[in-house]
Amino acid sequence: FVQLDNPSRLFRNIEKIDKGGFGDVYLARRVEDNLRVAIKVMKPTGGEQSARVQNEINILRSCRHENIVRHFESYLVGKEVWVVMEWCDGGSLYHL
């Protein structure tokens, strides 16, 4: 489910836009097609937090609905997990 590639070469214009409970959120463009994406970068500390991150990825991967953010891919970079998702204008759901 999680790729081991270095995603920093697959995305450009990576800009931090928000900080969440599990990590930071970035706006970027995918190099292959110039698509705007959101990247959530999380640093799970193990145990329950790692299980929550894996659960979030599994839920996002399984959902296919026009009102749910699409999951594109996930990467393990050192101790960080990068979750690449559909970019939705308007800010975080929490702020709305």
Written account of the structure:
A hairpin with a 2-residue loop joins strand 4 and strand 5 (80-86). The longest helix has 16 residues, at 47-62. The chain is 17% helix and 40% strand. A five-stranded antiparallel β-sheet has the order 1-2-3-5-4, with helices on one face. It has 96 residues and is α+β, with helices and mostly antiparallel strands. The model has no long low-confidence stretch (mean pLDDT 86).
Structure summary:
With 96 residues, the protein is of the alpha+beta class.
Salient structural properties:
single chain, 96 residues, alpha+beta, five-stranded antiparallel β-sheet, 5 strands, 40% strand
Instruction: Going across the biggest sheet, name each strand in turn.
Output: 1-2-3-5-4
Basic shape? globular
Instruction: Give the rounded overall mean pLDDT.
Output: 86
Counting DSSP H or I runs of 4 or more residues, the number of helices is 1
Distance between the termini: 30 Å
> How can the largest sheet be summarized?
5 strands, antiparallel
Structural class call reads alpha+beta
Radius of gyration: 13 Å
Low-confidence stretches: none
Helicity range of the residues?
10-25%
Q: Which range does the strand content fall in?
A: 35-45%
Helix-strand pattern: EEEHEE
